[in-house]
Input
Amino acid sequence: MASQLILRSADFFPRPGQTVAVADRYPQNVFAEHTHEFYELVLVWRGNGLHVLNDRPYRITRGDLFYIRAQDKHSYASVNDLVLQNIIYCPDRLSLNLDWAAHIPGLSDEQWTPHWRIGSTGMTQARQVITQLEQESSKNDPLANAMAEALFAQLVMTLKRHRFAADNLAAANSEPLLDKLITALSGSLNRSFLLEQFCEQERCSERALRQQFRTQTGMTINHYLRQLRICHAQYLLQHTELMIGEVSTRCGFEDSNYFSVVFTRETGMTPSQWRQRHNEAA
Output
């Protein structure tokens, strides 16, 4: 068995003992499964890809936010113009008198949620802070580390203020239309989604919304929703003992035969083969 790829702090932090840094991914290419010697925040700005975190697949696009611990294993695959930023940090080096664990999911031993979404409002504010953070973290003067940590604290608070659960449509109601649509799609995994009905409710042009979605994500709306459902099916097949028909229903497919056809086309394996392969690898 191949040894686990570990990303070393010395290769990613410009200076020894540095607390926080910004790693741009313009674009993020396919990256094999790995862990780190550091923690990271991942913000997705554009495009799409498959992000597998601790064996759970996520179809990611604009506005996705992840909190990743050093021991978490993750990888990127099936990327399409995927643009993201990693804010990398070492918790043991944080010196500001702040209850970091109360604001960063995963720092405490309690149950935590690694995947969130952040709308356009929060993305704009976060990008401004990250730009300053990137500048400070690349400097080499005596105050650079302290300034970078202060900006990191501001970023952490900004993300906490604006983040919401990926399927929380109520939280996305104050966000621009594209954010509301992406959130509505995430909340429709187990039921049909009618774009015409969504556009009528939001009083918007269906054609314009389709075009905006494709420009920002690199996918059609139908393709994105199908990918979300397939990712959810992969998770259920691997982590539950539900029958294939029940998995199909929980992923929004009324016909289990059609579900099997779509799943096989997208993954190259039938649902049963997927389950068997991943159970054997566990």
